[in-house]
């Protein structure tokens, strides 16, 4: 699979911020799942899809408007929309992959299990991929804003303090700014479409 970061013309600063933020977000989601006071992903409406192989972690699936679907694993996020196709955001280095196929529930428990995704072939696919990326970022920002209404104000900060990759990502985003940062990234992607 070849990532589409260059084809999507994602500005370098946006990629740097998103690279840190997606890894930080994935860590936070893992902590949200294991939260002693209850799984926040489930509380937000996720359907847990257990892996058929106990060696791999479960996926969490969210039904969105317009029949769109988000699947989360510890290694990435998959957004599928019937009219736009499917987009995968890899946790590792914020690599973006796209297929024009609508695959609501990929039978994947590792990145290598994902369906084949290639380069964007035309302007319609480019627009769809950009739009899906902006939608994914907006959804994450909305989730983070919701989390802030559900937990103690220091919940996210405590999680980020324990994030093992924090030293590698020198520009981690403060917990209080995560929702806003995702929404800003989404807006930037929407502007790049127009």
What do these coordinates show?
It is a single chain. With 194 residues, the chain is of the alpha+beta class. It has one domain (12-193). It has five helices and six strands. The chain has helices at 12-34, 40-43, 123-150, 155-161, 178-193; strands at residues 47-49, 59-63, 69-73, 76-81, 85-90, 96-99. Helix 3 (123-150) packs antiparallel against helix 5. The longest helix has 28 residues, at 123-150. The model has no long low-confidence stretch (mean pLDDT 92).
Which overall shape is indicated by the principal axes computed on the Cα atoms? globular
Strand order of the largest sheet: 1-2-3-4-5-6
Main beta-sheet annotation: 6 strands, antiparallel
Number of domains: 1
Judged by helices, strands and strand pairing, the structural class is: alpha+beta
**What integer is the average pLDDT?**
92
Number of β-strand runs: 6
Keywords:
single chain, 194 residues, alpha+beta, 5 helices, 40% helix
Helices, strands, pairings?
Layout: H1 12-34, H2 40-43, E1 47-49, E2 59-63, E3 69-73, E4 76-81, E5 85-90, E6 96-99, H3 123-150, H4 155-161, H5 178-193
Antiparallel strand pairs: 1-2, 2-3, 3-4, 4-5, 5-6
Task: Compose a concise summary of this entry.
The chain has 194 residues and is of the alpha+beta class. The chain is 40% helix and 15% strand. It has one domain (12-193).
